Amino acid sequence: MSETGIxxxxxxxxxxxxLAFPVILFLGKIFNGTPGWVKxxxxxxxxxxxxxxxxxxxxxxxxxxxxxxxxSTNVFTWFESSWWNPGADVAITTxxxxxxxxxxxxxxxxxxxxxxxxxxxNVFSIGYMNTDPINDNRNHRFYAExxxxxxxxLGMVLADSFLWLFIFWELMGxxxxxxxxxxWERPSASYAAKKAxxxxxxxxxxxxxxxVMLWNLFDGHLDYAYVFDPVNIAAVNSGDLQIxxxxxxxxxVGKSAQFPLHVWLPDAMEGPTPVSALIHAATMVNAGLxxxxxxxxxxxxxxxxxxxxxxxxxxCIGGITAVMAALIAFVQMDLKKVLAYSTMSQLAxxxxxxxxxxxxxxxxxxxxxxxAMGASLFHLFNHAMAKGMLFMASGSVIHEMHHxxxxxxxxxxxxxxxxFDAQSMENMGGLASxxxxxxxAMFVGSMSIIGIPFIGGFWSKEGIISSAWQVALKEPIFLxxxxxxxxxxGMTGFxxxxxxxxTFAGKPKTEVAEKVHEQTAWIPIPLVTLTVMxxxxxVLAGMHAGNWLGNFETGHYSNFFDGFGTEIExxxxxxxxFLMILTYVAIGLSLVLGPSFxxxxxxxxxxxxxKAKPWMQWAINLSAKVNKNSNFDNSKWANSSLSDSLHKRLxxxxxxxxxxxxxxxxxxxxxxxxxxxxxDGAIKTIESTSQNASRKIRSLTTGSARDYIMMAALGTLAIxxxxxxxx
Amino acid sequence: xLVGGLLILVAGLMAFFPSMNSSGETDWIxxxxxxxxxxxxxxxLAFASQEKRSRKEIIASPIRLFTLCASxxxxxxxxxxxFDWLILVDWDLMYNEYALEEEYLWxxxxxxxxxxxxxxxxxxMVWLTTFLVPVTIVMTWNEKHGATYFPLLxxxxxxxxxxxxxxxxxxxxxxxxxxxxxxxxxILKWGGKDRRYAAQKFFxxxxxxxxxxxxxxITLYFLQPESSGSGYGTVTGRTFDMTxxxxxxxSKNAGDSVFLGKDMQNILFAMLMLGFxxxxxxxxxxxxxxxxxxxxxxxxxxxxAGVMLKMGAYGMLRxxxxxxxxxxxxxxxxxxxxxxxxxxxxxxxxxxxxxxxxMVAYSSVSHMGVILLGIASMQPIGYAAALFxxxxxxxxxxxxxxxxxxxxxxYHSMEIGDMRGMARWSPFLAVYMMFAxxxxxxxxxxxxxxxxxMVLLAYWPAYGWWILLPGFVLAITAAYYLWSMQRTIxxxxxxxxxxxxxxxxxxxxxxxxxxxxxxILAVFTVIFGIFPFIxxxxxxxxxVAxxEGVFITGGI
Lengths: 727, 556
Hints:
The complex is a heterodimer of chains A (727) and B (556).
Chain A: H1 12-31, H2 35-40, H3 45-65, E1 71-84, E2 92-103, H4 105-129, H5 139-158, H6 162-180, H7 187-217, H8 224-227, H9 230-234, H10 238-255, H11 264-267, H12 273-282, H13 286-294, H14 296-301, H15 308-331, H16 335-362, H17 366-411, H18 436-450, H19 457-474, H20 479-504, H21 511-515, H22 524-535, H23 537-542, H24 545-550, H25 560-572, H26 577-602, H27 614-629, H28 635-638, H29 641-647, H30 652-698, H31 705-726
Antiparallel strand pairs in A: 1-2
Chain B: H1 2-16, H2 30-50, H3 53-82, E1 99-107, E2 112-118, H4 123-139, H5 146-165, H6 169-178, H7 180-190, H8 195-223, H9 242-253, H10 262-279, H11 288-295, H12 298-318, H13 320-323, H14 325-351, H15 356-376, H16 380-411, H17 427-440, H18 447-463, H19 468-488, H20 512-530, H21 533-552
Antiparallel strand pairs in B: 1-2
Helix pairs in contact in B: 1-2, 2-3, 2-5, 3-4, 3-5, 4-5, 4-12, 4-16, 4-20, 5-6, 5-7, 5-12, 6-8, 7-8, 8-10, 8-11, 10-12, 10-14, 11-15, 12-15, 12-16, 14-15, 14-19, 15-16, 15-18, 16-17, 16-18, 16-20, 16-21, 17-19, 17-20, 18-20
């Protein structure tokens, strides 16, 4: 089915950035260091911005065209190959591997997230990257890899088959590798890059095996149009389908940094902050969620209850990761690492929500499935916006800390300290008055992640928690993830508040923090935009964004106030008393319990006479009050063995490293030795034996005529004897 | 000097006037693709060997230029054939049909003839060879003793093409062994420290295997039904002609009957396969390869890995599989096992290597295992994948070896532990290394991925959960490539640690000719990754023809 319209040009959305990749690299190599390139082109930043802007415009037009109906178009045939069906009437059939564009609600939502954030983070990068001397003459590499990544993300979302989803998925993996290793000369960065690529690669291996199974199950098709057809799904053995989807899910676990393949994400923070914001918070890590969300039609189309196990596994992985990551986030001092663990935890929420949606879908509860699906995807949206903003805000803090550190070091050489860590929250404090825009953005973003009522993520998180509990009422095993994410809500409240208060409230903890002020151009633009976006989620909630995401064709809003009313009613005055109590418990945990612990531990008023903006000042005052009134003794906890394990990230990294270095590499070294000593040794033995033998035979060749005549005579005699014997 | 010049002129003219056959059509294969490079290189070698040692350096550069031009002629012809520019060639052939087929009687008494032709199996390899020879010449532009080095590369190309176009077992074997000669001298004269040992090992090991193959071929020759038609020997009453053999075998294999009987099929299949498996090489017959590669000069390695290894795979697909389909079914699981072992063993051993070039050599062993998996899958998509793997690996592996060569050339060391942070000194080399490594580990949109994907697709229905092993290899491959990159070009670039073998000099970046060669290889890796159908179309048609012509009519 092909149609005309913007969709004909949709292929340009990933293609333009992909073409910009070599252009920026090439121009960068030529013009590096020239004033025009540095000042006007921002070392490629402006080219990237133009391209991303064009992609954004096309994206918006495309979304406008396809807000309520599915569109698809075929772009080109990648290759064709043949298949032999022994014994069939038509013995050889042709399998087509094509590329096309497919647009539905998932695409529309994720495409908007990707294009919008790619553009904003590009704006941010121009402020962040181009003002740091360490990046001079290599920013073109950053922008080139940046646009290639954007191309991968946009392509993955638009692709019309699991095959091309995988291809763009790997392209993103490559860019992630390149960008984490942007400062390749640092051993930690090149180690982190390798770790990220290899860990996700383990997942990818299972993903591709899953795809291979799926391809064989669906008679040589991986395109959505065929595999999502209920007729074709019904024809497939559900047990096999579950295994194939399960394999694919492992790929999603790797890409979205879920337990047990989560170890790469915190280390990935070695990359420049815009990279963390874009790839490791807002877009690429969502690829795993997108893949799982894409599986929805399988679950609704397959035999009732046949895929429940997988849905439960997905939710459990989510629940476990949510709490585990939140726990580790409790003790992180590095601003970006807190956010990294927070990302893992929030993605885990979405996995649990998707697990619930898939369970409902597979057990015939279509309405509940649509609701859970909508809530999960809406949370994906909210989280991407908020987390992208949080990372950019953290980038802004780090950037200004760097600046301030340089100033301090410059003015007073005695204080020069090369080991100053601009990312550590132990060196910050009291920044609320010095960086009002950043502090506001961080404030709103944190509230959205925590789930403070009416702001951003609140709407979607409530939906996820209530969905999970609704499944738990029907399926007892689901109590595990449901309980875990409920506890996780309180933990989120703690670690996000802790981060904000440690950074922005209290007195500055170092001299550097006193000198910090907002000064870099370009950076505030995305911060303000995303703050508005996050606050605006309330409007989207009123517009039934969740409903629409759950039910694409009919779920869109008719009347804003009706929609808003329904949403409020659903959350606060639910007719089901169980859900209502659940909501208030969740709110109590995330709004009251978590933040108050954080205030008690880390709250405090700003230094002498400084005032933050009024919308933040109350929180700071409150925190100071709570902090003074509570004499909460933390030392016991801080010295506990659990805290120690949390500092060591629950030992996962150490165990994995040891397993790889000792077992795998050890086995490889042994194999290499076996190869040269035994396999090649056997050949060498044959060599030397035959050489020795020939040396011995050669000794017969004496060169003396007498010996030869003797031998000839003996030989003749032997022949005669033989002949005589035969006769 | 004058004579030499005249001879070169004559040879050049020969190329431009493809000979006419009896029906007045142009023979595009015999002289332009096969005869011309071999004759020209022989003339150049003879010419250069007459010169005094001091003059050899002077004539090296004109000879180099001349060989480059000479190698571009076959490339132009094969590229034109690829895109139907020259004449309309229909690559959609039935089984045992060949394009541009030519036959000239040669040794009538035993039924050997100069019979050449191309189909979807051989043509991609022919194009690859014609493509790689000039690229290799450019890449190793500054190789010492150029007066004899470059003609040897050209001869290598001609002999390799001869193997791929031969449609006569006798001719096939002649070219098969002819390829050893230039490679032997390339390793012996331009190789590293242990070159004598490596050259001997390479020659004797592969030659022994070839002898077993030859015995198999001769047995096959004498067991075939006697006849007195054209092409059949006047004395022996048998023929070396492959097309006649294929037709015979096909009719004798039809239905439930088996050509030569089941046992004889199994024996002959094993004999032929042994020769091809050593050439491929497959574990446990692979140990000549790392030695040969590590000692061989860059150009030798590029052609060795790029085309010469594929002779093994080509031979398998051309002869035993087409003549003995029942034996193929008999050995199917064993072939799969050998492929799997090569794949896994090669990859695991790679991880334990400290020498860059040795690692790359073992990765070739690993990748060649994929071809065996494709063959064992018994699906056209698997066969097309095997062909595409040969082709893609033929573009990617020369780049891998060129990168290793650049390390050797500029840093005089290929030990991974010797250097750190080389991207600081050689940014271009680092980029090419990254690209080639990524291409080899099967990154999508680069040529290698398509083949791996297709093999896996065909593999699952045939062997099920054994697919986890190739999957494991995908991860291990990424591990050894990334790890070696981390330890050589990244990590510690702030200060950088050039290898001691440089003796304190500043490490240089790569030279202009190397740059050009690398870019050409990289561009084609991308082209065939994004547009695989260019080459895959004819490969798929060939696989379908094989299945229809051999397996389905053979009642497999």
